[in-house]
């Protein structure tokens, strides 16, 4: 159908004023007096709604008056300016066709619903103001990420979801199987016989695409992943989902400095893209979800990010240890309260903390010459603390091998990974950005369940 | 590191000629005579390689001569034109630093390796010519898809991977569980007790995001998904993978005609994008992988797609039934041989076949007034047959409900889906494009294992 979108009307109103337009959308509200009425219509293309005026000259005037919230209609009429009114223009309808009515028990009424209630109707909540804004912005952020990397020549790699390796030694993975659960095949020793499973071995859902990503960085130099990732953590918090999306760039011939430059440029690019392309949504979030949002994002976009080593950061934080629930000391992991203090109170802008103790970081991070720290970096931002974590990767075959031995990792599982250090190794670096948390940061939404279309969390897998 | 890429040099050579450049990359070959030598270098940014000339005036001349294929080096030198030579320019090296050497047993030597062999080293094969081309083009196609939909205002939706519903009644799904397999909890009746599982119920990996996608189309009007999808089919063919990527657009206020227009525009857009952005790779595929590739893609790009109903198509095909292994008759499913005959012999261009018998299509497709067919469409293209399948969706609550009853589907599982027909239903349509098969089509690659970075197929889940 040839329909004009509400977005086209708002963004290019001169072209439509005083002309006939046909718009399709859903009713947000109807009110009528005896001879005319108003419909507020949204069509999903734009945050703002469109007012439609209709008159009893229409044959179906009474039907329109009785429309329930949520009904789908097609309106043909003339767009006219309304300089006296709140909205800039309205449609004077000549014809309204009901595409699909909305039953009386429509679960979304005009009143404000709680986030908790809306989570119980995840198939309908995208029709509300808040979720229209959230999921339109989510889509834009995703595109901004792709555009950022593609403009810079990064190759997008689809790393696998089903994996036979237990990447970071994390036990909290989901098993993937086609075995008959009621009648599991057994080995002679009585164990479950995974050689009968679909892949002839035990498989799980991945927790990170990084190691696979590194193999492609050593071929294409600059690559990124952007795909789903899984954690079977029993964490019932506002920031944990069992299924979430991750972005993991990886660069060959790149050290920690290059890595931080990329992370800073990426964050600024995404923020800029969203502010430019979703001004109405961002204004809405700033007014109704999180009052300090725009100011915070402007700060991130316009600051030069700070840099501090972990060791220096600990010295700074130790001086104010009485402020913290968890006291800091060299060797401790930084908690959100410490991270936020650094970025909000000390630096008053985003800050990279680098060179963490090797004991609290992953085996693949590059060991520094001090033998105590690794070339890791976390990017902390006002409002939440850590948003990005990354590192330069260990590129020495011998050092990687001995670190794996120290940690008791089975070399056989990492043959391919060691090969990268054997055949044309390069200094290389990368980081991970949790996409859903990034959406939370850019929208001010406080619960990860409200930025994922159909969130999967412990005990919850609806639709 | 500030490195000039090989792509920058090729695409903008005037700016670099007779100037100093620093390039990092991997050695494809080294040959030397007594006083000088040549290195062929690729850096992953571009399909073409760069020739480096080095002389014995360098301190490490002997080391460079001994470099193995695959070594990583950084070359500083002057880019000079070579009008007499095969390649347009070369670097006269002043300094070559070895970033990482390559052990003598490097599995990729200069000779041609078989696709089968390369599949056994999926972490190294992206360094070869063919896979450099495949995965750079794969990345571009992915971006072209996003750009196509975003330019048209479609909202990108991340539909969930883990699902509690058994969407199309397909039995062939992967189970997702955190239950202890060696010690499964049991109900009093002795069955596996899934109420103890992570989500408190049985869950699987999704086979399609469509039904979830429809809920968002009824809120945003135009949406698309682009994410991984799974089939636990025991199909060991060149076209089946257990994990693959799908694109599923869905449009409200759109009938079958709109759906076909979108599919046609999308295919043409993607082809155009790749031809423009990867001319070297496409030329390579056309010369070494599939001789008719470019001609076929140009045809698709420049044709107006044909349209034929299933019933008409059967009449056409029945006349030449002796050509086919499987004879056609009204009611049969079309096989690849029939599809290819239609598009290659009859239409000599892409063609949409519409209005299939309802018995061979999914329950959610819109029933036509003849009570025998549904508003389905398959897009057939020369070379492979079906590349896209879609339909207008049933938008009538009553018709959908009675069709579900006929097929014995449990209404309780589809409450949310029926709701869409109860609250503001619209005519709406969508389709699915298997992304990996699309990559095969655009590159001419013959095996799905060679367009997926780390393919998952029956019995195979390496890395």
UniProtKB/TrEMBL annotation, chains A, B:
InterPro entries: Aa-tRNA-synt_II (IPR004364), aa-tRNA-synth_II (IPR006195), aa-tRNA-synth_II/BPL/LPL (IPR045864), Asn-tRNA-ligase (IPR004522), Asp/Asn-tRNA-synth_IIb (IPR002312), NA-bd_OB-fold (IPR012340), NA-bd_OB_tRNA (IPR004365). Pfam families: tRNA-synt_2, tRNA_anti-codon. GO terms for cellular component: cytoplasm. Residues 135-453 form the Aminoacyl-transfer RNA synthetases class-II family profile domain. It is found in: Cytoplasm. Homodimer. One of its GO terms (biological process) is asparaginyl-tRNA aminoacylation. GO terms for molecular function: asparagine-tRNA ligase activity; ATP binding; catalytic activity, acting on a protein; nucleic acid binding; transferase activity. Keywords: Aminoacyl-tRNA synthetase, ATP-binding, Cytoplasm, Ligase, Nucleotide-binding, Protein biosynthesis. Gene3D superfamilies: Bira Bifunctional Protein, Domain 2 (3.30.930.10), Nucleic acid-binding proteins (2.40.50.140). Belongs to the class-II aminoacyl-tRNA synthetase family. Signal peptide: none annotated. The keyword DNA damage does not apply. NCBIfam families: asnS, PRK03932.1. HAMAP family: Asn_tRNA_synth. The keyword ATP-binding applies. It catalyses: tRNA(Asn) + L-asparagine + ATP = L-asparaginyl-tRNA(Asn) + AMP + diphosphate + H(+). This is Asparagine--tRNA ligase. Its EC number is 6.1.1.22. Its main location: cytoplasm. The gene is asnS.
């Amino acid at each position: 159908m040839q329909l004009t979108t509400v977005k086209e009307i708002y963004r290019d109103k001169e072209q439509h004023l005083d002309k006939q337009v046909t718009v399709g959308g859903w009713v947000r509200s109807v009110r009528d007096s005896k001879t005319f009425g108003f419909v507020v219509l949204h069509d999903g293309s734009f945050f703002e709604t469109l007012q439609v005026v209709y008159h009893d000259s229409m044959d179906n005037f009474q039907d329109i008056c009785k429309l329930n919230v949520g009904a789908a209609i097609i309106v043909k009429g003339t767009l006219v300016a309304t300089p006296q009114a709140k909205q800039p223009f309205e449609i004077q309808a000549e014809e309204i066709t009901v595409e699909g009515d909305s039953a009386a028990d429509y679960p979304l009424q005009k009143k404000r619903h709680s986030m908790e209630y809306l989570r119980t109707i995840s198939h309908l909540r995208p029709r509300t103001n808040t979720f229209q804004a959230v999921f339109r912005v989510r889509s834009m952020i995703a595109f901004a990420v792709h555009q950022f990397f593609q403009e810079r020549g990064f190759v997008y790699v689809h790393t696998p979801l089903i994996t036979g390796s237990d990447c970071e030694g994390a036990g909290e993975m989901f098993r993937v199987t086609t075995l008959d659960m009621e009648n599991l095949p057994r080995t002679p020793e009585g164990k479950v016989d995974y050689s009968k499973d679909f892949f002839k071995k035990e498989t799980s859902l991945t927790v990170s695409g990084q190691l696979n990503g590194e193999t492609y960085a050593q071929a294409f130099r600059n690559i990124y992943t952007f795909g789903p990732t899984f954690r079977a953590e029993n964490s019932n918090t506002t920031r944990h989902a069992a299924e979430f999306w991750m972005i993991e760039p990886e660069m060959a011939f790149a050290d920690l400095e290059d890595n931080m430059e990329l992370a800073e440029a990426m964050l600024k690019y995404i923020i800029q893209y969203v502010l430019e392309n979703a001004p109405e949504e961002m204004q809405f979030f700033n007014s109704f979800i999180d009052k300090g949002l725009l100011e915070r994002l402007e700060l991130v976009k316009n600051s030069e990010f700070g840099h501090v080593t972990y060791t220096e950061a600990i010295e700074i934080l130790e001086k104010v240890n009485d402020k913290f629930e968890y006291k800091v000391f060299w060797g401790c992991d930084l908690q959100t309260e410490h991270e936020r203090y650094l970025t909000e109170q000390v630096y008053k802008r985003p800050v990279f903390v680098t060179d963490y103790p090797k004991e609290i970081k992953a085996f693949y991070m590059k060991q520094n010459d001090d033998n105590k720290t690794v070339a890791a970096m976390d990017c902390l931002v006002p409002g939440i603390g850590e948003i990005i974590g990354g590192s330069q990767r260990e590129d020495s075959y011998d050092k990687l091998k001995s670190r794996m031995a120290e940690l008791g990792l089975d070399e056989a599982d990492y043959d391919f990974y060691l090969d990268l250090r054997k055949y044309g190794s390069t200094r290389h670096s990368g980081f991970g950005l949790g996409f859903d948390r990034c959406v939370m940061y850019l929208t001010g939404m406080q619960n990860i369940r409200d930025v994922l279309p159909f969130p999967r969390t412990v005990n919850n897998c609806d639709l």
